[in-house]
Design goal:
Shape: elongated
Radius of gyration: 25 Å
Number of strands: 20
Low-confidence stretches: none
Amino acid sequence: MVGNNQKLWDIAVIGGGPAGMMAAGRAAELGAKVILIEKNDSLGKKLLLTGGGRCNLTNAEFDIRKFLVKFKNSDKFLFSTFSQFGVKETLDFFNSRKMPIKIEAENRVFPASNKSKSVLDVFVKYMKDGNVSVLSNSPVDEIIRDKNIIEAVKLKNGKKIKARSFVLATGGKSRPDTGSTGDGFLWLKNLGHTIIKPNAALVPIAIKNNWVKKLSGLNLSDVKIKVFQFEKKQEVIIGKILFTHFGLSGPAILNISKKIGELLKYGDVSLSLDLFPHLDHGKLDLNIKEIFAKQNNKQLKNCLGSLLPSTLVPIIIKISNINPEIFCHSVHREERLQLGKIIKDIPMKVDGLLGEDKAIITSGGVMPEEVDFKTMASRLFPNLYLVGDILNIDRPSGGYSLQLCWTTGYAAGTAASIAI
């Protein structure tokens, strides 16, 4: 107890998302008296939405250096952190808690149940086993400091929570409906930290072409997207895409969205979709000729189902400017070649990026130079630990964001408990 008969906690964690729950659970596992403060009425609201509700909890690349290449310029900061708790340790963590996992395409790891709740349940039990006190419906209003030490946090209701150490796990600004409204950035800026302005990073793209909306729900795997501006190719990516009622989403789209957002500042951006990136024009034309030969008495609109998704067939034919009623045996060579050309180069015009309310993550946050990544402690306040999306670290979709949360949360929980 302290002077005003208020309990002094060993560690107070602000934010009940993946990084915060890992930090709280780990610190409690090591014997610390931990309180987790959550503004929502329940924990893990954004976690439950990840991976389309399935929770892509990591990426099964066990070589630390290869894994960190995906973090671009931040890899040099993260090596010591990931050496403590990386992909292998993450899988061991879930396996030891009897949550079966499975590895899918592109090394994406999911719970075998296909339910994010399985992951949340693991952390709820992890914290319960360590006697973590969870204070929900408790938005924080202010962080109270004394010189370079954090003394307490003041809640909106006026109550103060005092602790020896604090872990800030308030997330970025993506999906504000889940509670990620950027509060942590404001507090840290007031404390003197440098904050890079957050922007939507992994976010779907709105497309101007009306035909795109007719394909809503269509998934395509292993396709190539090329990004153009001023008739110059700016970016190329191969992967999965998803057509939506507003445009495009899916891993490949999310991973080029930040680049597209940067380009849009300078002018219009267009895309080219190649449905068969591993076939050259000649090989694709041979395939089309074989289809026409086998189905020469069928109309064009009815003979491409073995090559293309059925919903895409009429759109490809229309863009190719060919009569859909024509019989295959009457398609001219020039028309057939045009069909192949469009299949490998479907043009689209970008209307813009969706906002932070639809973003998977936001870029921006605390400068990595202001954090000790061995412990995740702030270099300005030794008893303040910064984890997860509060950090200015770009990463692609595919399990990398959650792995960053598990890793930094574990390192912070460990270091904060040792420092008691």
